[in-house]
Amino acid sequence: MEAKTLFDKIWDAHVVKKVEGGPNVLYIDRHFIHEVTSPVAFLGLKTRGLKVFRPDRTTATPDHNVPTENQHLTIMDELSRNQVEMLKKNCAEHGITYHDLQSEGHGIVHIIGPEMGLTQPGMTIVCGDSHTSTHGAFGAIAFGIGTSEVEMVLASQSIMQPKPKKMRITVNGQLKKGVTAKDIALYIISKISTSGGTGHFIEYAGSAITNLSMEGRMTLCNLSIESGARGGMIAPDETTFDYIKGREFAPKDGEWEKSVAAWRELKSDEGAVFDTEYTFEADDIEPMITYGTNPGMGMGITQNIPVTTGMEGSDKNTFLKSLQYMGYHEGEAMLGKKVDYVFIGSCTNGRIEDFRTFADFVKGRKKASDVTAWLVPGSQRVEKQIRAEGLDKILEEAGFQLRQPGCSACLAMNDDKIPEGKYAVSTSNRNFEGRQGPGARTMLASPITAAAAAITGVITDPRELL
Residue 1's pLDDT is what? Predict the structure, then answer.
């Protein structure tokens, strides 16, 4: 029997039809929707006189455009308000479960799925959002889709997709002190570039990966898309099963044992062939920071910004344009550079573990007076847990305030925008020009590195303060 990769096993089990010389028709187990990429899709259904085929397989929540303060009040921005209201109306019309602002299930779409146990091994999962790759941490095939594809899934619970190539990235060894899943991700992207994963689906393997918590695995898979990959995944194991067990939509009673037995088979067979392979050592990874305007422009925090020697043509021009936007120069150190804003949150680092890490670091210390910090839980459940564990008190004593759940300063689609020219250390996933606001300058980092910057007011190696 042919040795199969984990990706092959799940993909092949979901192929409804193979189009000769074309894409596969793939069945979708779970569809997540939000207020930005769904209105036009619902309009398309209406125009064609169609209903949602499997409303029970779709889950909705507003996240991108929502304010993170005063969520009990009417949304002031007219476009945002209309989009949220349309999502609510469309879900009511089609019988789709909708988690409204301030409801127990509300939050960022990629955080509430795992929290509720909706995300499970062996599934195919899509959403009109590129960071759907987050759900791959559970041993699922999860990827972002466009608005026309959202309409296709709503209408048929299937999607037409060419089968991607397969890549395995192995990270061996043990992470050093102060190094997190976020640092693994930024390190990998800095090595293979933002186009290194193009056309592939990544499986992450190796002891450094299997030793990550589920939260860490979600962070790593979330950032797969930033290497150009279609998505990322990690084979499920005891860590996965322990996380899912007892959650609202997890299999119950006798079904639980049957499900786990099936999930244990979800791993790449010995001898399975990948189109591309990379191997890295955990020992080579230190806390990472980006210095440019894409996630691949990252480096170890103690290193210097690369120089253009040896660079040619458009690569050199793009590099210099990026540094000019950031106000940095080649060969400079990042340590000691001024920080104006710190953002903790997003579907990358808005989970309870991220807030525990941040609170643990700032405990007994004080926020730098000239730093504005936005601490935004990824969901209502995360916010409740922060308060239940007393982390909010630790944060308040250190000079930080907790905001309400939403995508917040990850992207400039709501009120939380970094002002022009200001520097933000952000735990989110993208640092493109204007991503956090017109003219905003973003450095991507882990919650620990962000905490160190929030306390000192400059880029700081967190290991010096641990």
Answer: 81
The C-alpha atoms of residue 25 and residue 17 are separated, in whole angstroms, by 5
**Chain-wide mean pLDDT for the chain?**
97
Q: Retrieve residue 283's tokens.
A: 């020992």
| Residue 282 clears pLDDT 90, i.e. is over it | yes
Task: Kindly report, residue by residue over 308-323, the tens digit of the pLDDT.
Answer: 998 988 889 999 999 9
Q: Residue 458: helix, strand or coil by DSSP?
A: strand
Which pLDDT score is estimated for 462?
98
Task: Tell me the C-alpha distance between 466 and 461, whole Å.
Answer: 9
Residue where one domain finishes, among candidates 128, 161, 194: 161
User: Is 216 within 8 Å of 249 (Cβ atoms)?
Assistant: no
Whether the per-residue pLDDT at 299 is higher than 90: the answer is yes
Residue 294: strand pairing partners: none
Residue 170, classed as helix, strand or coil, is strand
Measured between alpha carbons, how far is 6 from 213 in angstroms, rounded to an integer? Answer: 20
| pLDDT of 240 over the 90 cut | yes
Does residue 145 fall inside a structural domain? yes
Each residue's pLDDT tens digit, 24-33: 999 999 999 9
Does 398 lie in the same domain as 294?
yes
Residues 325 and 394 in one domain: yes
- Which two tokens mark 7? 């990706």
In sequence order, what are the residues at sequence separation of 6 or more whose Cβ sits closer than 8 angstroms to the Cβ of residue 212?
A: 181, 220, 239
Number of domains in the chain: 3
Pair (171, 75) in one structural domain: no
**Distance between CA 345 and CA 363 in Å, rounded?**
19
Q: Provide the Cα torsion 321, 326, 329, 330; round to 10°.
A: -70
Task: Name the nearest CA neighbour of 8 among 24, 21, 19.
Answer: 24
> Which pair of tokens denotes residue 142?
């999860």
Is 257 within the bounds of a domain?
no
Closest CA to 120 of 259, 239, 255: 259
| Cβ atoms 342, 425 nearer than 8 A | yes
pLDDT at 5: 98
Query: Whole domain around residue 147: which residue ranges?
Result: 6-161
Q: Is 127 annotated in some ligand binding site?
A: no
Domain end: 114, 132, 161, which one?
161
The verdict on whether residue 221 carries a ligand-binding annotation is no
Confirm whether 242 is domain-assigned: no
Q: Is residue 157 domain-shared with residue 169, that is, in the same domain?
A: no
Q: Is 347 annotated as a binding residue?
A: yes
Which domain CATH number covers 385? 3.30.499.10
